[in-house]
Specification:
The chain is mainly β. It has one domain (about 10-100): PH-domain like. It has one helix and seven strands. The chain has a seven-stranded antiparallel beta sheet, covered by helices on one side.
């Protein structure tokens, strides 16, 4: 089985994040030690979403006010779940980040 296609999930997640750059991001980071509630919560507009898919793929999100989140393919899996983008740790079984989007007028 030498020809295995890799699903370009980082590109798919990046595209979803870019599509929603004009919406408010609702981010909840769950750590394996406290899965019942988010360790970090962010509700904010985004000033920039950028990525690199060459050597070590990564996606970075810069929020208004200067908070940055970066997810690397070395440390995270990513996929889409409904309208949300999900990043899950490759090393900590129950550590994940869920990013949802809301229209600015709704918030």
């Amino acid at each position: 089985m030498t020809n295995v296609a890799a699903f370009p999930s980082f590109i798919t997640s990046y595209n979803r994040l870019k599509e929603n750059a004009d919406n408010v991001y609702i981010v909840e980071l769950y750590h394996q030690d406290r899965m019942s509630e988010p360790t970090v919560s962010i509700i904010n507009s985004v000033s920039e979403v950028f990525a690199d898919f060459d050597d070590e793929p990564y996606i970075s999100i810069r929020f208004d006010g200067g908070t940055d989140l970066t997810f690397t393919s070395e440390s995270y899996f990513t996929n889409l779940s409904g309208d949300a983008v999900v990043f899950s740790s490759k090393y900590a079984y129950e550590t994940c980040c869920i990013i949802e989007f809301r229209n600015k007028e709704v918030i």
